[in-house]
């Protein structure tokens, strides 16, 4: 399993992401934003951070990075792409995923563990989990408030693109940022491009607070 982790100026979760995938047995390469070679991966990961300082909007400038041409081609050919937090924002800004990520309702940066419920597992990413499973994963964002128009949202439900929702420990809806339907993670129609605001790569060891991230990332190794 070969994973390429894209690094933009301001990315700050690249090393955690590399470490997490290596822990699961992957060979991981970094790819700098102005390169044009993805290094032949099985999975491309856009990690979290503050690409271009979040100027304009999170992900709005990274979208124009040279390497995004290759990421788009890779995704169009069916290659697997995962965007975590800022990476999710970049994928949305690049129109590889539907909707938009706007400022949290509170207008505050939120950093804490939060429960998530698996809404759909009929995809490679969440294939190690069951529908209804609850995981506890860190969130750390200022612009995680997911918005999408009603028609697109309906299509997303119909084609199993809504994957994860924020909830409390019992699975009841608990929305930290105002996202429509408390959505925390989605995929594209072809189920090869995934994005989520929470950070599975930060939940890989019980001594650091939890290892539910393993169950999530392991899906890509099937
Ligand atoms: N942890 C992250 O990737 C943060 C994403 C983005 N900078 C935000 O605050 O919303």
TrEMBL record:
Entry's localization field: Cytoplasm
Gene Ontology annotations of biological process type: 'de novo' IMP biosynthetic process
Annotated keywords: ATP-binding, Cytoplasm, Glutamine amidotransferase, Hydrolase, Ligase, Nucleotide-binding, Purine biosynthesis
Pathway(s) annotated for this protein in UniProt: Purine metabolism; IMP biosynthesis via de novo pathway; 5-amino-1-(5-phospho-D-ribosyl)imidazole from N(2)-formyl-N(1)-(5-phospho-D-ribosyl)glycinamide: step 1/2
PANTHER family documented for this protein: PHOSPHORIBOSYLFORMYLGLYCINAMIDINE SYNTHASE SUBUNIT PURQ
Catalytic activity: N(2)-formyl-N(1)-(5-phospho-beta-D-ribosyl)glycinamide + L-glutamine + ATP + H2O = 2-formamido-N(1)-(5-O-phospho-beta-D-ribosyl)acetamidine + L-glutamate + ADP + phosphate + H(+); L-glutamine + H2O = L-glutamate + NH4(+)
UniProt-listed Enzyme Commission number(s): 6.3.5.3, 3.5.1.2
Keyword ATP-binding among record annotations: yes
InterPro entries: Class_I_gatase-like (IPR029062), PRibForGlyAmidine_synth_PurQ (IPR010075)
Subunit-level organization: Part of the FGAM synthase complex composed of 1 PurL, 1 PurQ and 2 PurS subunits.
Domain of life: Bacteria
Positions of the catalytic residues: 85 (nucleophile), 199, 201
A molecular function (GO) term: ATP binding
Protein name per UniProt: Phosphoribosylformylglycinamidine synthase subunit PurQ
UniProt xrefs under SMART domains: GATase_5
Functional summary from the UniProt entry: Part of the phosphoribosylformylglycinamidine synthase complex involved in the purines biosynthetic pathway. Catalyzes the ATP-dependent conversion of formylglycinamide ribonucleotide (FGAR) and glutamine to yield formylglycinamidine ribonucleotide (FGAM) and glutamate. The FGAM synthase complex is composed of three subunits. PurQ produces an ammonia molecule by converting glutamine to glutamate. PurL transfers the ammonia molecule to FGAR to form FGAM in an ATP-dependent manner.
One cellular component (GO) term of this entry: cytoplasm
